[in-house]
């Protein structure tokens, strides 16, 4: 077998299936498009689901790709096993209703064994099949020269992830030889398909031939799909380890350059390819995680506290901690990004193009984490100290999870620190808290099905539907060309009649209703007969698999296929949405004009009553800048700029300077929308005819939704006027309350009040100091001798903890005793203060040590310097015990 590079192996796979008539589809973004069921693209087929479930007709029925994917469900195993990764590449070939078993099996064998292609040793290849799928077994035996005895029947060989397409599969294994055996030869798991290291699964071919319908649990009852599919997956990392004879996936050209670059950053640590070591784990984790993070950031995801941003943050933090295990104390991960980009340059040139952005994001996040890490170490020290004070032998699972979730501490780090203090960690409790978080994350996601049940009606629908909404919002004489409802079994089917009090899908030969796209909500409206009677209400519009406009209609009165009807868009809703859509374009331009830099749209939502715009930017936009943005947009509204559009090809649009907007998909013909000379973008939504139609623009909020991503919400027209009026009313009410003649005089009046308040606060502080001095004079007379020290110990009544410090300052000035112990209760909370003079410190008595001893008795904690320490607590009833404990502590010194 000839050794091959990862780039050669990937390209050879694509070239092979291109020679078999497949369309080569480039790897898509890791961030799913229009799929709320996925956090990340997690498989080769994930980007093609819309073709398999029939919601979209593919450009070609034969497709092949090498798709990057991320999975983090077993992140703890990365680095500890030979093949666990967070980011991996899945190569696949797909048939959407085209070829099936008889074609794909011989092709797979040809690619794997032909000297013109991979040229693997046939005697080292094995396959598994589903026991009830004897057809597949027969094809392997008769249409390939797979050696006898190399087919195994395995009950698990049935691919089924719930409702939707499913079917048997056939897995292909490569025998790596006895040197890779990790089990005795007679072990029940030592066979292709068993849990062993010798027989490596390199390819899985799924025969998607059944429809898993709701309510069915036995796959023998699944009906046949109207269109059978092929879905295969070959892990690039695994196959490369075969060709390069890597002991693990990490011992290949996909990872070793990253590992070697990391070695140079350590204090003379080295990666050992011959055996497993603790350092090896850290090298592998860093190499894996920097790949995943680099690709994720390049595809537009950024570190955050939730969702996919949390995954990036967690991966970065794990990599940093493993770097520290290797002795790397400085920021280092950004240095590895160019190495990742170079490895992947042949197929992913965008990594090299985005290297500077990726490095900046990673470096900022690494710096941020190190600050958080120090805080986490402090919290961990407190947790350990509290456990020891309470004579506990274990750190709670809840505390361990908080350290992991808030500060990025992996469980093993908490266990390591706890072990040094003679404690264990409640791992079971940690897992309970972790599972609770996972459940919350699942609940927060859409409950849409992962892959829809294949809808042959929509997939095969052969009617045309033309959108005419660019010019008109009413159509007279539209023909009903399709009515789609559900039969008694809940299966979609074509109907001839739409009956009253039902909801159906309707297609018209022409429509003025805009379908939901690009962040713009769909039009609503009415369907009328020729006499003006209401037949139904359009409540949603979506594009079908073949591009038809599919209207969801709440039926009011019966109408039938081929009826001629009149369509009426809800004009007010349509105009409101169009105003907000135009305003979105103007906001995008204003941000780029005023802030500049790396401003890019990161999402949008255009509703009838407001708009939302997400964009990339580090840190909040200050109020003065927001005012400039708002003023610029209102200036352009006042200039009554014309809003025009034209259709052209993509290259001409780029030459015109049109901006491509986030999330849009562009074909050969594109629509360019221009707002005077102010803004020009590629866009498929509806707009006003001039900026004056917006009337007014008002920003209502600016906030962060993740690291490096900000969100602006805004209003136009009457809602904007109402918002300005509400502000004016609030100012008028404030002016009346403060007895100011005009609202414009409010700022100067507020300054006056602030000055008055400041003077009053100074007076209060002066009086409090006098009271504290008087109280101190009384307390300082309560001198007692405890052990070898003169001590003042008292519970006092003061307004705040600042007064307690004032008494300590007076004590320090007058030096009436060696030690001062004060307690006070404010709003049912305890404040403790301990001070010790130089004599006490020299004798070994430190205020910080004493406060740590007595603070738990009032339900709190604290610390400080040898001469002064403070603590807080929640248990006023424990003050007497705290004083008693303080007395014992002092006596023992």
TrEMBL record:
Residues 4-726 form the Alanyl-transfer RNA synthetases family profile domain. It catalyses: tRNA(Ala) + L-alanine + ATP = L-alanyl-tRNA(Ala) + AMP + diphosphate. Belongs to the class-II aminoacyl-tRNA synthetase family. Keywords: Aminoacyl-tRNA synthetase, ATP-binding, Coiled coil, Cytoplasm, Ligase, Nucleotide-binding, Protein biosynthesis, RNA-binding, tRNA-binding. It comes from Convivina intestini. The gene is alaS. One of its GO terms (cellular component) is cytosol. Catalyzes the attachment of alanine to tRNA(Ala) in a two-step reaction: alanine is first activated by ATP to form Ala-AMP and then transferred to the acceptor end of tRNA(Ala). Also edits incorrectly charged Ser-tRNA(Ala) and Gly-tRNA(Ala) via its editing domain. Residues 750-777 form a coiled coil. PROSITE patterns: AA_TRNA_LIGASE_II_ALA (PS50860). The keyword Aminoacyl-tRNA synthetase applies. Pfam families: DHHA1, tRNA-synt_2c, tRNA_SAD. It is an enzyme of class 6 (ligase). Consists of three domains; the N-terminal catalytic domain, the editing domain and the C-terminal C-Ala domain. The editing domain removes incorrectly charged amino acids, while the C-Ala domain, along with tRNA(Ala), serves as a bridge to cooperatively bring together the editing and aminoacylation centers thus stimulating deacylation of misacylated tRNAs. GO terms for biological process: alanyl-tRNA aminoacylation. Its EC number is 6.1.1.7. The lineage of its organism: Bacteria, Bacillati, Bacillota, Bacilli, Lactobacillales. The keyword tRNA-binding applies. Its main location: cytoplasm. This is Alanine--tRNA ligase. GO terms for molecular function: alanine-tRNA ligase activity; aminoacyl-tRNA deacylase activity; ATP binding; catalytic activity, acting on a protein; transferase activity; tRNA binding. It is found in: Cytoplasm. Gene3D superfamilies: 2.40.30.130, 3.10.310.40, 3.30.54.20, 6.10.250.550, Bira Bifunctional Protein, Domain 2 (3.30.930.10), Threonyl-trna Synthetase, Chain A, domain 2 (3.30.980.10). Signal peptide: none annotated.
């Amino acid at each position: 077998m000839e050794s091959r590079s990862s780039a050669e192996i990937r390209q050879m796979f694509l070239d092979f299936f291109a020679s078999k008539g497949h369309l080569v589809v480039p790897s898509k973004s890791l961030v799913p498009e229009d799929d709320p069921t996925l956090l990340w693209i997690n498989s080769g087929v994930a980007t093609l689901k819309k073709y398999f479930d029939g919601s979209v007709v593919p450009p070609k029925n034969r497709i092949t790709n090498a798709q990057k994917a991320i999975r983090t469900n077993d992140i703890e195993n990365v680095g500890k096993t030979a093949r666990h990764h967070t980011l991996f590449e899945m190569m696949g070939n797909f048939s959407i209703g085209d070829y099936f078993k008889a074609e794909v099996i011989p092709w797979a064998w040809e690619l794997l064994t032909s000297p013109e292609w991979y040229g693997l040793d046939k005697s080292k290849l094995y396959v598994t099949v589903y026991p009830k799928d004897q057809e597949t077994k027969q094809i392997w035996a008769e249409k390939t020269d797979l050696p006898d005895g190399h087919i195994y029947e395995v009950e698990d060989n049935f691919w089924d992830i719930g409702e939707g397409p499913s079917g048997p599969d056939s897995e292909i294994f490569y025998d790596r030889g006895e040197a890779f055996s990790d089990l005795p030869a007679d072990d029940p798991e030592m066979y292709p398909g068993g849990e062993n290291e010798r027989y490596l699964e390199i390819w899985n071919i799924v025969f998607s031939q059944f429809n898993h319908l709701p309510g069915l649990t036995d796959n023998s009852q699944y009906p046949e799909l109207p269109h059978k599919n092929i879905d295969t997956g070959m892990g690039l990392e695994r196959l490369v380890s075969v060709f390069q004879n890597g002991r693990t996936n990490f011992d290949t050209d996909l990872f070793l350059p990253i590992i070697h670059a990391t070695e140079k950053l350590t204090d003379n640590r080295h990666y050992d390819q011959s055996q497993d070591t603790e350092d090896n784990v850290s090298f592998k984790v860093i190499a894996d995680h920097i790949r995943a993070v680099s690709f994720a950031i390049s595809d537009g995801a950024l570190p955050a506290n939730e969702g996919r941003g949390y995954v990036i943050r967690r991966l970065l933090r794990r990599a940093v901690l493993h770097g520290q295990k290797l002795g790397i104390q400085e920021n280092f991960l950004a240095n590895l990004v160019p190495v990742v980009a170079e490895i992947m340059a042949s197929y992913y040139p965008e990594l090299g193009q985005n290297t500077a952005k990726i490095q900046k994001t990673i470096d900022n996040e690494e710096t941020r984490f190190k600050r958080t890490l120090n805080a986490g170490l402090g919290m961990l020290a407190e947790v350990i100290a509290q456990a020891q004070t309470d004579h506990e032998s274990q750190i709670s699972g809840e505390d361990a999870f908080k350290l992991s979730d808030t500060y990025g501490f992996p469980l093993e780090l908490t266990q390591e620190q706890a072990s040094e203090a003679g404690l264990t960690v409640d791992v079971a409790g940690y897992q309970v808290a972790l599972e609770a978080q996972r459940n919350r994350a699942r609940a927060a996601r859409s409950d849409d099905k992962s892959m829809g049940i294949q809808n042959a009606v929509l997939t095969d629908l052969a009617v045309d539907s033309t959108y005419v909404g660019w010019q008109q919002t009413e159509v007279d004489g539209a023909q009903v060309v399709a009515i789609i409802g559900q039969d008694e079994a809940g299966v979609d089917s074509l109907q001839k009649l739409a009956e009253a009090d039902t909801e159906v899908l309707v297609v018209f030969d022409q429509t003025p209703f805009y379908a939901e796209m690009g962040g713009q909500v769909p039009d609503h409206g009415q369907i009328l007969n020729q006499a003006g009677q209401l037949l139904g209400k359009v409540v949603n519009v979506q594009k079908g698999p073949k591009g038809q406009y599919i209207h969801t209609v709440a039926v009011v009165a019966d109408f039938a296929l081929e009826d001629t009807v009149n369509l009426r868009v809800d004009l007010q809703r349509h105009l409101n949405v169009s105003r907000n859509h135009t305003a979105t374009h103007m906001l995008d331009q204003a941000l780029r004009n005023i802030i500049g830099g790396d401003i890019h749209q990161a999402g949008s939502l255009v509703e009838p009553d407001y708009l939302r715009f997400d964009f990339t930017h580090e840190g909040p936009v200050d109020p003065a800048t927001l005012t400039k943005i708002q003023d610029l947009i209102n200036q352009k509204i006042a200039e009554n700029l014309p809003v025009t559009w034209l259709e052209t090809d993509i290259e001409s649009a780029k030459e015109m300077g049109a901006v491509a907007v986030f999330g849009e998909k562009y074909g050969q013909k594109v629509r360019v929308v221009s707002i005077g000379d102010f803004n020009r973008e590629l866009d498929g939504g509806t707009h006003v005819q001039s900026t004056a139609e917006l009337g007014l623009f008002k920003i209502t909020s600016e906030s962060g939704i993740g690291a490096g991503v900000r969100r602006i919400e805004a209003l136009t027209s009457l809602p904007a006027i109402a918002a300005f009026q509400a502000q004016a009313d609030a100012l008028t009410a404030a002016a009346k309350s403060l007895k100011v003649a005009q609202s414009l005089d409010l700022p100067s009046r507020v300054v006056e009040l602030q000055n008055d308040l400041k003077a009053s606060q100074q007076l209060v502080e002066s009086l409090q100091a006098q009271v504290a001095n008087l109280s101190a004079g009384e307390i300082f007379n309560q001198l007692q001798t405890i052990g070898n020290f003169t001590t003042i110990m008292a519970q006092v009544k003061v307004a705040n903890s600042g007064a307690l410090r004032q008494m300590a300052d007076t004590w320090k000035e007058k030096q009436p005793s060696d030690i001062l112990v004060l307690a006070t209760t404010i709003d049912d909370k305890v404040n403790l203060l301990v001070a010790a003079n130089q004599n006490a410190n020299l004798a070994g008595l430190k205020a910080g040590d004493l406060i740590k001893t007595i603070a738990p008795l009032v339900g709190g904690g604290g610390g400080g310097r040898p001469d002064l320490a403070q603590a807080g607590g929640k248990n006023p009833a424990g003050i007497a015990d705290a004083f008693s404990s303080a007395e014992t502590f002092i006596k023992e010194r």
